[in-house]
């Protein structure tokens, strides 16, 4: 293949800047010989182009000769091509150059007269070599490039050998050659170089082997080609695997492609790029040059896919060992395969695909069957997943399913739930017998619970259940586990509970323990589930069966779910139930129950218990590789950190969780919730926050008292801050509806205070009093300190409707009691909220002490970086005729904007996003966020749209 690769992305060559600078400095010294080797598509031509563009003075001559592959090459063909179009020749050329008249007819009229014939071919050839050397020297300062030296004819080689041994003083000679490894340039016949490089001592000799790009460099090249700042790291890694880091192949894959458009996926769901026709042609062209035995070995390597040792290639190709080794040597010389640590593989995945497609369709099943059997004979431990794929492609579906199942069993035994789930799913797709299908489905249901599978798992399990071939035991267990999957991971809350309930009759037939476990699971309450009284009834049913449960693991599971259910209900006996948990609960079960208990303790207001449970959950997760449980513990931790006011650095952590856990609805919803709350409180980005909170509400499946209430409370506060009490009331209604429907008042701690405030400000005091009475009744016999603190807060807010004067004993006592309660629960935001409400109540009644209290609230908000809340309080002070005291700005600027803050503020006022500002001012995104927040605070405004009006003051 002699077509020139297209130029790379504009600008500096990706990954070659240092090399380019090095070569430029060397070639400018002259005389110099530069040798650049590398495999096809690595960018030799592009590098030389850039080198010529940057090298030499304007008057220097540049000659480019390209050697062509040919069965009958014409002598000196590349030199004739380079010299023929040359412009005016120097005057007074040496007479010997007249010997070139026949070789260079286009220059004959500018050359000296032809010397008389010598009559002896060898002498004539020698004179032509001398003439070419003399002509090159006469050009003065010049750069001669000879590309693809591996295809040079004998005459061209002889000339270059002479030129290397005695280069003209002002010549820079650049030679490129195709070489798959670093060549040995001290011996004739080295890879890619047809003669040894033996230069005089005064000549600069530079030899560089151009290696493929790294994964990071491949990503940088892709970003340039796609016109984006950067590509995701996983995209760069995949692109590097597909292309081997060869720039030409990268360019062909991305040619005409929209920026970061998704590639189609293969049968396994992995992204798979199209095979460029140019890459296919290049591989096929190389294959055609191979003898039949070498093509057999290459076909075997293509079928095997992974790097393969000689013994595997022998078995799959059907050759003897010596024949295979000779064939490999030929394939290596042609660059079709590479050697690495005793194995042989293709330069990149696309080359392997091209070689595989070149294998005749009828031959592929035979080779795949050989590959499966060879892997069984020659590898240990068996690569079961690879063997399964070979059996599948060989049409042996039963063996394929058997290997997939064994691979899944191995992964499950190693604690890798995600891999095991994928293998069990593939085994079901392989079409096993009915007996094997039912067995695999049960294993899949058991292991998927600790993975993070997509919708394929519930669909596969339902398909098996629809066959009605299962006995009551397996059927009941699969239904139970399917319900858990739907509950935990698919967003189908009520459907999940109903599926688990349907499992109970089947389970009772074969296992009291399994039935009790199912009942205990359905006993766990949620805001989108059944009324709490129904969950209590189901828990009582599970407790009734508990004495009959003999299996230790099932008994432990029932006790764990019982403790979780009681804790979430705020039942005072919950902590005794926790104390009664057997010490045999370890590993994944321990992580699950302690994460559940940590979440319940956080929600209900038991911070010390929450910390202890969370620490045990992390300890259990770190000893088990269970992606679902890792996500569970991490999102629980993120919610706890927000609740306890540990907001520093939390946004980036929550955003990572949101990105990673998108396929687990409740975890995704909790991450979205915290992202939205932090965007509101620490950034003042109300629109962004409301979008995130809305997504959180739509994503949550069941919600054990976290997402619906906190999201509604935040939106209600946004409306209250904007002076829209009716909208605030409406924002709270859905969450209150779920609380009233389920009776889960213990989870009302977040929504009750802003809902009461909204009703009061909307002139609906009667409804506010009724809501507070409902809350009091709902938590009367519950152990829910957070709901109790919320009740105190609501009663304090109601004093504004009772006619009690501000600062009176009853009013102040309620506010102080509420603040003290929130302080004990380690909820700094709620403490600040109570102080803010108290300060406003005092100011509204004309009590100047309200100013001091409101400043205390501002300080409390500032301590947790509550920028939006600080700005709201400052505005409230101004509305009451008070002057807000702001914390000083950066050293040297006080309350005034620094030059950098002013530049950021000016761009923000024009509507630029933080990322656009970061690009404009060459700052990090995080730095811009800090500058915007400080500018808002110093200017005393609450949104970016108000910045412009304040900048000129």
Notable features of this structure?
953 residues; mainly alpha; five-stranded parallel sheet; two-stranded antiparallel sheet
Give an overview of the whole structure.
With 953 residues, this protein is mainly α. The chain is built from 44 helices and seven strands. The strands form two sheets. It has a five-stranded parallel sheet. It has a two-stranded antiparallel ribbon with strand order 6-7. Helix 5 links the parallel strand 3 and strand 4. The chain is flat and about 125 Å long. The N terminus is likely disordered.
Write the layout of secondary structure elements.
Layout: H1 17-27, E1 32-38, H2 44-54, E2 61-66, H3 77-83, H4 121-138, E3 142-147, H5 154-165, E4 171-178, E5 204-209, H6 215-226, H7 233-243, H8 247-254, H9 277-288, H10 292-304, H11 310-317, H12 321-333, E6 338-340, E7 343-345, H13 349-357, H14 363-378, H15 384-393, H16 397-413, H17 417-429, H18 434-448, H19 456-465, H20 472-490, H21 493-510, H22 512-522, H23 532-545, H24 552-569, H25 574-579, H26 587-604, H27 607-622, H28 627-643, H29 650-660, H30 665-681, H31 686-699, H32 707-721, H33 725-742, H34 752-761, H35 765-778, H36 785-802, H37 809-824, H38 828-844, H39 849-863, H40 867-879, H41 899-909, H42 914-921, H43 925-939, H44 947-951
Parallel strand pairs: 1-4, 1-5, 2-3, 3-4
Antiparallel strand pairs: 6-7
């Amino acid at each position: 293949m002699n077509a020139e690769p297209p130029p790379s992305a504009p600008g500096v060559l990706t990954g070659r800047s240092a090399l380019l600078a090095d070569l430029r400095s060397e070639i400018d010294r002259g005389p110099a010989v530069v040798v650049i080797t590398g495999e096809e598509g690595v960018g030799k031509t592009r590098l030389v182009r850039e080198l010529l563009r940057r090298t030499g003075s304007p008057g220097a001559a540049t000659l480019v000769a390209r050697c062509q592959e040919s069965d009958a090459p014409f002598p000196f063909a590349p030199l004739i091509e380079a010299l023929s179009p040359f412009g005016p020749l120097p005057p007074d050329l040496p007479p010997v150059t007249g010997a070139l008249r026949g070789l260079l007819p286009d220059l004959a009229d500018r050359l000296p007269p032809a010397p008389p014939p010598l009559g002896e071919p060898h002498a004539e050839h020698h004179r032509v070599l001398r003439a070419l050397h003399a002509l090159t020297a006469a050009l003065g300062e010049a750069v001669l490039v000879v590309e693809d030296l591996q295809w040079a004819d004998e005459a061209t080689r002889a000339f270059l050998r002479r030129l290397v041994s005695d280069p003209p003083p002002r010549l820079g000679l650049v030679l490129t050659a195709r070489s798959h490894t670093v060549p040995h340039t001290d011996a004739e016949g080295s890879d890619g170089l047809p003669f040894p490089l033996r230069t005089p001592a005064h000549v600069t000799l530079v030899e560089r082997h151009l290696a493929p790009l790294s994964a990071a460099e491949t990503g940088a090249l892709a970003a340039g080609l796609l016109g984006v700042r950067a590509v995701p790291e996983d995209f760069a890694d995949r692109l590097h695997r597909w292309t081997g880091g060869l720039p030409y192949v990268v360019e062909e894959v991305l040619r005409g492609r929209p920026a970061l458009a998704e590639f189609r996926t293969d049968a396994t769901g992995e992204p798979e790029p199209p095979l460029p026709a140019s890459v296919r042609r290049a591989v096929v062209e190389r294959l055609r040059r191979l003898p039949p035995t070498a093509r057999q070995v290459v076909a075997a390597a293509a079928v095997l896919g992974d790097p393969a040792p000689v013994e595997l290639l022998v078995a799959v190709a059907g050759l003897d060992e010596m024949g295979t080794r000779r064939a490999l040597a030929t394939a290596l010389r042609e660059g079709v395969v590479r050697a690495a640590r005793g194995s042989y593989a293709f330069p990149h995945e696309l080359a392997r695909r091209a070689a595989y497609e070149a294998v005749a369709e009828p031959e592929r099943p035979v080779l795949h069957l050989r590959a499966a059997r060879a892997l069984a004979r020659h590898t240990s431990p068996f690569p079961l997943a690879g063997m399964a794929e070979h059996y599948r492609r060989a049409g042996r579906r039963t063996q394929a399913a058997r290997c997939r199942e064994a691979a899944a069993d191995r992964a499950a035994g190693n604690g890798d739930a995600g891999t095991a789930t994928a293998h069990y799913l593939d085994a079901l797709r392989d079409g096993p017998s009915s007996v094997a299908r039912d067995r695999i489905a049960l294993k899949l249901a058991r292991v998927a619970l600790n993975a993070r599978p997509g919708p394929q798992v519930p669909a596969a399990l339902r398909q098996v259940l629809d066959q009605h071939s299962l006995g009551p035991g397996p059927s009941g267990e699969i239904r139970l586990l399917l319900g858990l999957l739907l509950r935990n991971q698919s967003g189908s809350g009520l459907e999940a509970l109903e599926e688990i309930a349907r499992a109970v009759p089947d389970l009772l037939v074969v296992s009291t323990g399994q039935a009790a476990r199912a009942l205990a699971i359905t006993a766990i309450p949620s805001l989108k589930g059944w009324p709490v009284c129904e969950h209590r009834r189901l828990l009582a049913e599970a407790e009734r069966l508990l004495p009959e449960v003999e299996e230790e693991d099932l008994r432990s599971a029932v006790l764990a779910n019982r403790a979780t259910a009681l804790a979430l209900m705020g039942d005072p006996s919950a902590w005794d139930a926790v104390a009664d948990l057997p010490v045999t609960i370890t590993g994944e079960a321990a992580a699950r129950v302690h994460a559940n208990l940590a979440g319940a303790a956080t929600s209900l207001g038991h911070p010390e218990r929450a910390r202890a449970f969370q620490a045990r959950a992390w300890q259990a997760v770190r000893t088990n590789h269970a992606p679902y449980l890792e996500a569970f513990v991490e999102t629980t931790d993120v919610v706890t950190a927000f609740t306890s006011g540990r907001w520093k650095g939390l946004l980036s952590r929550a955003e990572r969780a949101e990105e990673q856990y998108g396929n687990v609805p409740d975890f995704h919803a909790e991450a979205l919730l915290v992202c939205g709350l932090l965007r509101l409180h620490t950034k003042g980005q109300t629109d962004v926050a409301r979008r995130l909170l809305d997504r959180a509400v739509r994503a949550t499946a069941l919600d054990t008292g976290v997402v619906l209430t906190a999201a509604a409370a935040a939106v209600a506060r946004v409306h209250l801050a904007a002076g829209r009490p009716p909208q605030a009331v409406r924002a709270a209604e859905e969450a209150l509806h779920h609380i009233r429907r389920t009776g889960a008042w213990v989870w009302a701690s977040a929504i009750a205070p802003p809902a009461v405030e909204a009703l009061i400000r909307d002139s609906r005091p009667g409804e506010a009093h009724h809501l507070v009475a409902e809350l009091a009744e709902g938590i009367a016999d519950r152990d829910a300190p957070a709901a109790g603190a919320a009740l105190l807060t609501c009663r304090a807010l109601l004093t504004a409707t009772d006619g009690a004067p501000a600062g009176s004993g009853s009013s102040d006592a309620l506010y102080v009691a509420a603040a003290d309660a929130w302080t004990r629960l380690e909820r700094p935001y709620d403490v600040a909220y109570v102080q803010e409400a108290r300060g406003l109540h005092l100011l509204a009644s004309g009590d100047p002490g309200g100013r001091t209290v409101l400043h205390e609230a501002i300080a409390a908000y500032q301590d947790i970086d509550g920028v939006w809340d600080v700005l709201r309080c400052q505005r409230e002070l101004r509305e009451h005729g008070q002057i807000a005291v702001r914390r000083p700005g950066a050293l040297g600027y006080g309350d005034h904007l620094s030059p950098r803050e002013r530049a950021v503020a000016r761009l923000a006022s024009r509507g630029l996003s933080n990322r656009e500002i970061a690009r404009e001012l060459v700052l990090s995104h995080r730095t811009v966020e800090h500058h915007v927040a400080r500018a808002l605070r110093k200017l005393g405004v609450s949104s970016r749209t108000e910045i412009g009006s304040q900048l000129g003051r």
